[in-house]
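INFO  loader      accepted 1 record
INFO  loader      residues=577
INFO  predictor   begin
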Amino acid sequence: MGRLKSYLWRYWRRYLLGALCLFGTATLVMWIPWWIREAVRIIEHGGPVDDITFYAVIIILAAAAQGIIRTLSRSLIFNAARDIEYDLRNDLFAHLEKLPIAYYHAQRTGDLMSRVINDISAVRVFLGPGILNLVNAPLYYIYAVALMLSMDVRMTVASLLPSPLLILAVRYFRGKVMKSSLEVQQQMSALSSHVQENLSGMHVIKAYAREESQTGQFAHLNDDYQKKSMELAGLRGMVEPFMKGISGLTVLIAIWYGGVRVIRGDLLLADIVAFIAYLNVLAWPTAAFGWVLSNVERGRAAMKRLEEIFKAEPEIVSPLASLPVPPGAIEFRDVCFTYDRRANGQAILNDINFTLPIGRTLAIVGRTGAGKSTLVQLFPRLYDRTAGEIRIAGRDIRAFSVAELRRSLGYVPQDPFLFSTSLRRNLAFGRDDVSDQEMEEAIRLARLDRDLEIFPQGLDTIVGERGVTLSGGQKQRATLARALLVKAPVLVLDDCLSSVDAETEDRILRGLRSVLKERTAVIVSHRISAVKEADEILVLDEGRIIERGTHQELLQRDGLYADLFQKQQLTEELERI
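INFO  predictor   done
INFO  writer      dumping tokens
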């Protein structure tokens, strides 16, 4: 909860003013029974009507004033809670943006969404109504008990005899409500994850006719959620009646014990009226203890889940004194990489060495699973090398800020991703100042211009979530155009035309030659035809470079590269038949 204290400190003035308003409200509320007592005394002794009128007016004014001050206190505290919710959600999202790709491999999107939305809302309820009642209830009790003691000690003690049960109830229910709240929130995350995965993979579900199976899984998760929610509701249902029972018991004792003493002449009727009024005032805070307990524990459980995200530290940290990324050769020196370095996992890349001079094109080929995509993801530091050095212009890439390094790269991933917005905004995602002429040129180079003619609204066509309205080839060409618009000095193409037919790929690559002359380029492809013109070709196998050279040199060596080339030629000939 230490992090939460820092957020509370930002708005301590509002909380302090809110607490002062609560004190003012409590003062007015607590004096009303006292004035009622004085009015009853006047009635008992047959006093003047003007005196009764005087107290009636005071009570009305006090009730109106406390209503105004109560509204102000709620406004101060609730608005502060809303602002903390706003800050917390922004900070959490910003932190999520800084976490490495590896973090998301171990998380479920639905669970993260549930934490960002539901858990933060639970924290806000705790910081708003929860804190208000945490301050209000003890304040009412202290004020009321002090005034009751000033009237009659024995009557006060007798009336509050059931109060220790309140403390025992809080201690008993607190842990149970906390545990149950955490289980409900975790089950909600599981439910959210299932819905998110199903909506994202709906085409697969329908293709395999698994609607009934997925509906059954959802029903099972929903059933678990309902059971856990009912358990929590049952606990809450036990707490509130118990608290109200304690409140009713105090009033019952006051009426019985006070009535006996009034009959004996040991206590004035005005006093017992005041006592009952005070106990009625305390009835709401007593009953609210159950609600407060539930929301406090739910807020604590939610904050615990949020802390799990905040404690996840970015593995890739930018240096404090960052250098601009200069143009220059890219060097890999004895680079190794493993995904699970803590568990001494199997190395994906071993002893990778090469130099890519500025303005040259490097191609990387190999069998599926050879480590090609992993290698190029080390360029923008989507993953960080486990050992060795990666240098640009003689400087270790760790000397540059991650943002500057990535701005110097136009990276096109193997799996194209488009946002659920217009095609225009997707293409201009990497820059804020793209001209129409630049947009047209990038579209032409990516061979997307003919497709654009059939889109209903051209560049303003909404492509849907993950570009669902586009074909695989169209999505890949759109992401290529996006990278070209960045105009970065280094262009990294990670098998980004795998869904495009060989003829279209050849046209795109021929069109890119003029662009590649001005840039350093890295091309990963499963098609040998796409890399024949590269200045150097690296052949990867099981994470190691086993061959390197130009297209002709590698064919003459009659190794893996030549074998891949021959198989692809045979496949193309069979397709022509």
